[in-house]
Design a protein that fits this description.
The protein is built from six helices and 15 strands. It is α/β, with parallel strands linked by helices. Strands 1, 4, 5, 6, 7, 8, 10 and 12 form an eight-stranded mixed β-sheet that branches. The longest helix is centred in the first third of the chain and has 18 residues. The structure holds 1-O-pyrophosphono-5-O-phosphono-alpha-D-ribofuranose and uracil.
Length: 210
């Protein structure tokens, strides 16, 4: 079955930084920096989901055509690994409000266990950007969008770093309206639900909790 609403973002900076992120010898500091740099490419790529409003702007000399974003942007990182994407996305969307969702996969069942929710109010003009570097089984992303949609997040996208085919299929099935942006569609999951070739545990590698 083909995937849909899936954009694989690629450029030379991403190729270099994804290699740094996959490398098992990369230390947390360099891991965070590479993830931060890739976030800028992802933010720019997902601009195709952003509508513009034309506005006049006064230059020192005359009136020119200008633009502003039509949607109010709400960033929602999934704790913990999504936290690394917040700062670079806030640089690109400085007016965004930020919600947080705490989900942790149970190591045996691989089902997400929720432990924290705090989100701003959503309106019809909200564009919600869920930030989570790993889309593995898809359980965490589906649980996050279930929660967000119940609270009125009507237009949503997922920004991830690496996706597994299993996760893309699950998200396509359960939230067909959600656009997925990622930098790699990897081969498969292993028996422990880790993405192959992947980069290991994104939260542990970001925060040094091995
Ligand atoms: C990781 C990752 C995703 C989830 C993806 O978080 O950041 O949230 O796994 O897996 P899934 O698609 O199979 O649900 P984890 O549960 O390891 O929590 P952590 O970030 O606190 O380490
Ligand atoms: N979560 C991770 O951090 N890495 C994986 O490969 C799968 C889920």
């Amino acid at each position: 079955m083909p995937y849909y609403n899936l954009t694989i973002v690629d450029n030379s900076f991403i190729k270099r930084d994804l290699t740094i992120l996959r490398d098992k010898n990369t230390l947390p500091n360099e891991f965070r920096l590479a993830l931060r740099r890739i976030s800028f490419s992802l933010a720019i790529a997902m601009c195709k989901d952003i509508e513009l409003l034309e506005i006049p702007v006064e230059t020192p000399l005359e009136t020119a055509k200008g633009y502003k974003f039509k949607n109010e942007v709400i960033l929602v990182p999934v704790l913990r690994a999504g936290l690394s994407l917040v700062e670079p996305f806030l640089e690109m969307f400085p007016d965004a409000n930020v919600g947080h969702i705490g989900l942790q996969r149970d190591e045996k069942t691989l089902k997400p266990v929720d432990y924290y929710y705090k989100t701003p109010k959503f309106s019809d003009s909200s564009l919600t950007i869920l930030l989570d570097p790993m889309l593995a089984t898809g359980g965490s992303a589906v649980a996050a969008f279930n929660f967000l949609k119940e609270r009125g997040a009507n237009k949503s996208v997922l920004v991830s770093l690496i996706a597994a085919p299993e996760g893309v299929r699950k998200l396509n099935n359960e939230h067909p309206d959600v656009s997925i942006y990622t930098t790699a569609l990897d081969r498969q999951l292993n028996e422990n639900g880790y993405i192959l070739p992947g980069l290991g545990d994104a939260g542990d590698r970001t925060f040094g909790t091995f």
